[in-house]
Amino acid sequence: QSAKVRVEERPAKTPNASVNAPTDTSPTRRARPQQGDQIHKEDRRRPQQKDQIHSEERRRPQHDDRKRRRRLDEHRDERHTLKKLPTSESSRLSPRNSDLVNANRERVGSLPPSPRPRKSPVRAERKKPASSVAVSSLGQEIERCASVPVQASNVRRQKALVSAMPSPVDDREADSDEPVAVVSSVDAVRQSESQYEDYFRWQDGEDRLQTIELHLPASGATESYSLLMPKSFDRESESRDEYLPVNDLISTVRAIALYLVDSSDFRHKVCGDKENGILRQLERARNRLNGRDFVGAVHEFNRLLDLERVSSNIGPVFDKSHIPSDLAIHIVEQTYNRVVAPTVDMLRQYKAFSNNVYGEILPTLVSEFIERAGISHDTTFIDLGCGIGNVVLQVAAQTGCFSCGIEIMKVPARFARRQAQEFEQRMRLYKLNHGAVQVWQGDFCESTDVQRMLPRADVVLVNNYAFDSALNQTLLQMFLDLKEGTKIISLKPFVTPDHKISARNIYSPESILTVRRYQYWSQCVSWTDSGGEYFVQTVDRSRLNEFLAQRGML
């Protein structure tokens, strides 16, 4: 009240007061009550403003903090996985991989602990189930992923299965005695075991075996094969898209006997005797669904192979620099069935026939490409748009050359890298050498790896069947960096066969290319069963130089 009284006693200003009138600069008591009232009003409003600020902070999306927490959570999971890696798993790694694991342990161990996430004021944060904790063992991880209920999202299940597979490593020598860990036939079937059933009919009193060990050429190497078959398998049609472990085992026995043991006696006992040979026994037992005879034939093959190993007869019967196409295709198909086939549905989530997705070239046509382009062990091969990497692997296996590829889509590129890992380990099991393999993920129009490799490339494969004209023109500009004599294999031509050099197109990329057209037949590509054509362009600047020389422009 006193403040109010003092304000009322304040003299009012007269409009005629002089501007230059002297003012009292001493502190006045009459100005303070107004300031005091204003301060008290602000203090009364302050709790409401604080509540408003706190509510805005709760609603504000803190993107930087969330990203930081996400990265730290990923490092925490990586640290947990590496620290939980058992000794049995570590002993199976190569020295280089052991160094990588130790380096990762040091790198992850030095990271700061991840912050504890704040609970939302609206609802409490749900705890992760125990099954989501990272497991180091590959077999345990696959079993955990396979236990995801069928009613759950197929995409989530397949992503979990993909993450359980091994990561790629560098090349290894075939003669090394170091233990090799591969994805076996049993591991591939276990990922979808509920969709499999017994292949053979067992008599009463017989052991109903579901797996069997097959010996391989490398010292002490074996692989567990499943004796199951898909429930949807049609014995009459035998679709090539379904993995049948029994057929895979028989094909492996045939490949070992024909190509990987240098003994005519062993070869005759396995495949030479058309009536009582081991291969004939396996096929007869498969056709009659006789499990006991099938298992007996496998055990006999293992015994004979062990005797040949003691006699030091294990070795290829062909030139090591050029593996027969049948053997190379068999190994690539085995790799595909173990890495890609169990989660192949992940590759079907795309827009078909676009610049990014355009089908697959099958092994028969790849073998023709190798012969037509003259690819040998000293060739550098690059696949622009390699997909899951089958062509890259087959070229490396069949010719022994350096084979590389690039894929723009993340899921196929990840499959390609893991196929390269499985392929390299499987080649060691068969004691076979192969060319170096490298796969990148990215856009080949912008990749620095491609820009670095193109001037060195001898053969370039481009499946441009569904590419638009703009992308083909971009590729033509990239081909200007190719060296003389480089061959470009494509499904559509980059230059017409009747292209003629003139003054108007001397600076066009087409002027340095010559082209030849070839036909391919059915069962050569994945997008059609009918035949088609492909083109082999060769970098040849001699015609352009001759044209320029005739006109004095050189």
What does this entry look like structurally?
This protein is an alpha/beta fold and about 550 residues long. It is built from 19 helices and eleven strands. The chain has helices spanning about 1-10, 30-60, 65-85, 85-90, 95-110, 140-145, 155-165, 185-190, 245-260, 265-270, 280-290, 290-310, 325-340, 365-375, 390-400, 410-430, 450-455, 470-480, 540-550, and strands at about 195-200, 210-215, 220-225, 230, 380-385, 400-405, 435-440, 460, 485-490, 515-520, 530-540. The strands form three sheets. Strands 7-6-5-8-9-11-10 form a seven-stranded mixed β-sheet. A two-stranded antiparallel sheet has the order 1-4. The protein has a two-stranded antiparallel ribbon with strand order 2-3. Helix 14 crosses helix 15 (about 390-400). The chain is elongated. Residues about 1-10, about 15-35, about 80-100 and about 105-175 have low confidence and may be disordered.
Q: Summary?
A:
By secondary structure, the protein is an alpha/beta fold. Helix content is 43%, strand content 10%. The strands form three sheets. Strands 7-6-5-8-9-11-10 form a seven-stranded mixed beta sheet.
